[in-house]
Amino acid sequence: MPIWARVRTRKALRGMSSVVVVLLGIAFANPAAAKEARSDAMRSPLSNYMLMCQGCHSPKGAGLRDQVPAFRDEVSKFLSINGGREYLIQVPGVSKSPLSDQATADLMNWLFFQFDATHVPDNFEPYTEEEVAQLRKSSISNATQIREYLLSNKIPVTRNEQTYLSP
Ligand code: HEC
Prior knowledge:
The chain has 167 residues and is mostly helical. Helix content is 57%, strand content 0%. It is globular. The N and C termini lie far apart (64 Å). Mean pLDDT is 83; it is low at 9-13 and 15-28. Bound molecules: heme C. Residues 52-53, 55-57, 68-69, 74-75, 88, 91-94, 97, 99, 107, 143-144, 147 line the site of heme C (HEC).
């Protein structure tokens, strides 16, 4: 390597290391912020949807006939059914996805407006990282039956409590 190239490399490295030091400083100054800076929560909900969900649910939320339910004009209805808010996170496609709790909350809060804004209740409270963390701990294995139960009974949300569905 010619001497000038070595000099340039060393200078560049020195420059880079100070950038790294500054970034680490920012990250460690606030541990919570450092945790949140996970790459999936930095991606847009649309990108996460494209990466993790649209293979089954399709880009326009149309689903796959008889196999994957459509989101379009449907998905937000669950928010007005008792147990629906919980079901939406406990369903395996959501609870078992590799997305972090924060990225999942952001994705779901986006998804309702993206695919079914009309059925989002006026008093809708966005999911939080903590709520997703709690709910996904009790992922359901019998999603089909629970889905049928919720849609055939359509018990309105009357309380502000969470209804944990048992697996
Ligand atoms: C392997 C295919 C597949 C993938 C990937 C997938 N899902 Fe699903 N999803 C399903 C199926 C099938 C159902 C119906 C319930 C069940 O049987 O699990 C469902 C149900 C849902 C429901 C409940 C809606 C309803 O009408 O029952 C939501 C919300 C949902 N998925 C969101 C997501 C999100 C968000 C992602 C990406 C992070 C995702 N899914 C990834 C197949 C998938």
